[in-house]
Amino acid sequence: xxxxxxxxxxxxxxxxxxxxxxxxxxxxxxxxxxxxxxxxxxxxxxxxxxxxxxxxxxxxxxxxxxxxxxxxxxxxxxxxxxxxxxxxxxxxxxxxxxxxxxxxxxxxxxxxxxxxxxxxxxxxxxxxxxxxxxxxxxxxxxxxxxxxxxxxxxxxxxxxxxxxxxxxxxxxxxxxxxxxxxxxxxxxxxxxxxxxxxxxxxxxxxxxxxxxxxxxxxxxxxxxxxxxxxxxxxxxxxxxxxxxxxxxxxxxxxxxxxxxxxxxxxxxxxxxxxxxxxxxxxxxxxxxxxxxxxxxxxxxxxxxxxxxxxxxxxxxxxxxxxxxxxxxxxxxxxxxxxxxxxxxxxxxxxxxxxxxxxxxxxxxxxxxxxxxxxxxxxxxxxxxxxxxxxxxxxxx
Length: 396
Fold this sequence. Notes:
Elements: H1 3-29, E1 30-32, E2 34-35, E3 39-45, E4 49-55, E5 63-66, H2 67-72, E6 80-87, E7 90-97, E8 101-105, E9 108-112, E10 115-118, H3 120-123, E11 130-132, E12 142-145, E13 150-153, E14 165-172, E15 175-184, E16 187-195, E17 203-205, H4 207-212, E18 222-228, E19 237-244, E20 247-250, E21 253-256, E22 259-262, E23 277-279, H5 281-284, E24 287-292, E25 297-302, E26 315-319, E27 327-333, H6 337-340, E28 348-352, E29 355-356, H7 362-367, E30 373-379, E31 385-391
Parallel strand pairs: 4-11, 5-10, 16-23, 17-22
Antiparallel strand pairs: 1-13, 2-3, 3-4, 3-8, 5-11, 6-7, 7-10, 8-9, 12-13, 12-24, 14-15, 14-25, 15-16, 15-20, 17-23, 18-19, 18-27, 19-22, 20-21, 24-25, 26-27, 27-28, 28-29, 28-30, 30-31
């Protein structure tokens, strides 16, 4: 091989190595997440304990751990204290770990002096071990990429935002707020909304917004549901009203015909707040998002069409196979098919369509609401066995 060819080969190899290095750096800087209504990231606690953590934009300074997970893990805290924390269901007394706790999420290492012990699985499900945000989200632009399911922190400045919608935001008490508008019939509910990746919903309005915009007076079909453990806090049961919106307007983007909810008797995060509601992942999952707190800006890029009005069921559940035989019924629409068939809050579903729920994978569990029929084997809280058949229906 002559000298010229050797030089060309060296340069080619150098370029290949450089591209591979940059690609590896991109991968290492990104934090993959599983998406199941919530963003679930893998973390390692104190270098040895693996866990599934919900990423919540409202939890920037918080790392909290589920109480059942803690008891069953190898984590043995030395110092335990008492505190009061707040959430979607008001305030609650909790225990806190006062040891120095190291948490590694992807390439990000954080240390926490206080870790609240929460009943997270009562609110979410048994796949969740903890909750956190990214503490330095104030210092660096941060990406939430729903298209490819990764989070990324940008230490060298804002990434390319060509094609994105740019929106002004406020950042108060670790909450990202943006202006949006929901139109229901001819009524406009316009103001500041919280960007909440800790919520799987579309839009949930606060009790204050219900009064301010007289949401109960707007004409149209409604569904009233009762829900257990709607959020962290002492309120164990919540009343939720669903109705159909005509438009949800975020910047220059318009989302048509999505069901929204309001909470007439909301406490905690859904009481009297400097925002009128929260926008959850049923909206955000359609976007790639870049948050730039230092510039008070939010960038959105829609990458898919938003589906609407699919057949569904009028009950919901939480997987608690970590502590019982099945899935616990956690919300029910009043006078709905499930209630008329004899289902009650707190019932445990032990089999669906002839299959023990303990044999369902996480993906199968998520997709069960998409099946057209449910044949349910249920055990009530007082031990009575029930056999119920339901069909998915369009609600609107």
